[in-house]
Amino acid sequence: MARAPRQADIAAAAGVSQTTVSLVLSGSTDGSRLAEATRQRVLAAAEQLGYVPDPVATRLASSRNRMLGVYTFATAFPTAVDGFYYPILAGIEAEAAALGQDLVLFTGTGGSGERPDHRAAIRRTRIADGCLFFGRHVPEEPIDWLLGDGFPLVYVGRRDELGGRIPFVGVDYVAASAEVVGRLAALGHRQIRYLRCGDDALSSTDREQGVLAALRTARLPVRRVVVRAEAEAVDAGLISRWVADGVTAVVVEETDTGDLSAAALAAVESAGLVCPRDLSLAVLGQPKDRPDVSGFEVPRWELGRRSVRLLVDQITGARRRTDQQLLACRPVPGSTVGAAPTAPRR
Fold first, then answer.
1. What is the pTM of this model?
2. Per-residue DSSP letter, 110
3. Are residue 185 and residue 273 in the same domain, yes or no?
4. What pLDDT shows up at residue 7?
């Protein structure tokens, strides 16, 4: 098998020194007296010989190799086209390409037997210039270690762990959720239930905070409003009991799986209720394949794009390492929310 071409081969083909080849291929010719014709001759020789630079050697020489890591704590990347994460990944890919960056995808398996939140698994990301992280929770010890070592990283989603030192691009779920509940209050709803998952992820807590803030602003009761449940516990019986107790609107958290909102919508239908005639229902997010449902749209493509931009700005020193950004959501009026019933329901 023929060996791969080296810089010495390019130097011989272009009739220049190996130092000149190194300068041209590293892009370090600024301030030098190297003629443009010489530079073009070196590039042509490299292309003709099929030269591919060693990324490890390039990193050692320049401290940067234009590779960004993307780390998920799952065992496989969530790449289903109709999944929650797909638009985020598409935004990441689009912005990385626009900035001339390659992507390295890391999963939580790693092939070495460690847990996905173990330092040994996460430290693999250091082969890249910096890394984006996905996950509802933060493994504080390894992330703290990366931050302390000066490694550029950005979380996709708001984080407040580690004393607020984690750079992130997140979504303003507090404001978006408050807007949804404020709309219900303006439509005359006085008895509202908020259905959220049992997980204590920050995105869930932010949504709840927005719901309660809007209720207090409207001078509505907050006691017994929040109900934690998993999807399998949400059925027609639960919804019917709420309606019998005078509940006129239900607000549901939309998680990355969409299971809870799907269960709530199915339960309303099974109970023989029609939205919004019998019950208004809003989702804090946008259920898959249900544009008719009232709620808000999470800017997932922009979330991915802005995360890449922030990471690259970190790597190049254009931004502080502690930069944090929140993106607004677009309200989705839908057709499942209406005025509160004014007459007793049978």
1. 0.77
2. T
3. yes
4. 86
